Amino acid sequence: MITIAIDGPSGSGKSTISKIIAKKMGFINVDTGALYRTIAYFFLENKINYKEKSEVLKNLNNISVSLKNENFSQTIFLNGVDVTQKIRTNEISMLSSEISVIPEVRQFLLKLQRDIAEKNNIVIDGRDIGTVVIPNADVKIFLTADPKVRAKRRYNQLISKGQSTTFDEILELINKRDYNDIHRKISPLKKANDAILVDNSNLNQQDTVYKLIEIIKKKGIKIDTK
Predict the structure, then answer these.
(1) Does 77 fall in a domain?
(2) Tally of domains within the chain
(3) What's the CA gap between 16 and 166, in Å, rounded?
(4) Model pLDDT for residues 83-142, shown as the tens digit of each residue
(5) CA 185 remoteness from chain centre
(6) Which residues pair with 82 in a beta bridge?
(7) Mean pLDDT of 19-40
(8) What is the CATH number of the domain that holds 64?
(9) Rounded to whole angstroms, how far apart are CA atoms 203 and 68?
(10) Per-residue confidence (pLDDT) for residue 142, from 0 to 100
């Protein structure tokens, strides 16, 4: 099986770019950030005190997370219920950053991610894919951009979905999320030594896709660029 790992900070566009590339390659797309958001959503909805280890362990046993890919679009199910749209809020984003430092949560999702990789050709994005989850990935890319650029992208995305927010609020959340992800003790956000750095601050979506495709092709992996 072939694995394309795309890591990077929040708002770098890695999830959207991964979906497009997966579709072009005929691969399955795995958005690992969505997996953590799903756990965060469960904790929030059930008022779980995630700072208590015993509560975390007890409730992880009540969680079943599954992915379904149809027409190269990923749907996420929590205990059989589609939560794909419900997990896309600022509150869930920040909470997922907090719970991502919990070893038991990371271990719970690590097995799921590796099982998917063992059985499928995938394009998988996250923050520690190339360093921890799948360190032997065939291609590793670290996608990033200036925080203000990322905040503007996220702001436009949320406004287009009818959510009420401001650019300053999003920028503050981006900077806080970056700090949490980079400084966490367990699997912090960082570029793998053998990953290729791509800064897309001045690239649009199409140009970013083209640049990543060229990187993948140079690794000897065939891809349909139609």
Answers:
(1) yes
(2) 1
(3) 22
(4) 999 998 888 988 998 888 888 998 999 988 998 899 889 999 999 999 999 999 999 999
(5) 19
(6) 77
(7) 90
(8) 3.40.50.300
(9) 30
(10) 98
Edge to edge, the sheet with strand 73-78 lists 65-70, 73-78, 81-82
Report CA dihedral (209, 211, 217, 222) to the nearest 10 degrees.
Answer: 10
Domain assignment of residue 162, yes or no: yes
As separate numbers, helices (DSSP H) first and strands (DSSP E) second, the chain gives 8, 8
Compute how many other C-beta atoms are within 10 angstroms of the C-beta atom of residue 57. Answer: 13
SS3 content of the chain, % helix, strand, coil (to 5): 50, 15, 35
Count CB atoms within 10 A of the CB of residue 86. 15
**pLDDT tens, position by position, 158-214:** 899 888 899 999 999 999 989 988 998 888 999 999 999 999 999 999 999 999 999
* Spatial contact of 90 and 165, defined as CB atoms under 8 Å apart: yes
Q: Is residue 226 part of a domain?
A: no
In a domain, 175, yes or no: yes
Domain that holds residue 142: 3-217
